[in-house]
Automatic annotation (TrEMBL):
Belongs to the TRAFAC class TrmE-Era-EngA-EngB-Septin-like GTPase superfamily. EngB GTPase family. It comes from Anaerotruncus massiliensis. PROSITE patterns: G_ENGB. Keywords: Cell cycle, Cell division, GTP-binding, Magnesium, Metal-binding, Nucleotide-binding, Septation. InterPro entries: G_ENGB_dom, GTP-bd, GTP-bd_ribosome_bio_YsxC, P-loop_NTPase. This is Probable GTP-binding protein EngB. GO terms for biological process: division septum assembly. HAMAP family: GTPase_EngB (MF_00321). GO terms for cellular component: cytosol. The keyword Transferase does not apply. The lineage of its organism: Bacteria, Bacillati, Bacillota, Clostridia, Eubacteriales.
Amino acid sequence: MNYHNVQFEASYGTSSQLPPSDLPEIAFAGRSNVGKSSMINKLFNRKGLARVSAVPGKTATINFFHADGIRFADLPGYGYAKVSKGEKRRWAELIEGYFAQDRDLRVVFQLIDMRHPPTADDLTMIDFLIDRELPFVAVLTKADKLSKKQREERLAALERELPCADQIIKIPFSAETGEGVDAVKAIVAEIERD
Ligand code: GTP
Ligand code: MG
């Protein structure tokens, strides 16, 4: 994969607008503010590719990018309390609609803030992925914000906190330092070989 060849495709606000799945697809899921858009920008080494914000709920649409025949989907974050009921319903429709489609989804990068235990919404999402037998990898974001000791504590705790923890690949990741980028790219390379 030549990560320079990335192109923004389009944004979708309702699942009925989503184009058919005609390329192998990789999705980025996780609660609002966990770092999905930052991760995409870090992978492609382009600051403004996906919009990042300190204000949660920045990505309210599904945003598609593609590079070398693979589609990348930046999903809107869940779990942000300060949005209207109507907005929440729209997000739910969008994400549920996305996963209900028969898409050529090769892996979901499920982001979890490494500083904290998974939220109830994170666990719902992970249960859903397991239930649907969708391949996923846990990306533990903001790793740069933890001390060595905190990191070890969180890694140990996740073994208890995540369902089927021993079967889940976990990649500590930092959009600040670039930690984890190579591990993520190795997974993308595996998908390309399939
Ligand atoms: P939504 O679009 O709201 O769903 O959020 P998102 O998951 O796309 O998060 P986004 O990438 O916009 O990042 C949210 C905030 O976290 C921003 O202020 C980022 O700069 C910060 N952030 C993201 N990743 C990291 C990281 O690895 N380390 C640090 N220190 N900050 C990060
Ligand atoms: Mg975002």
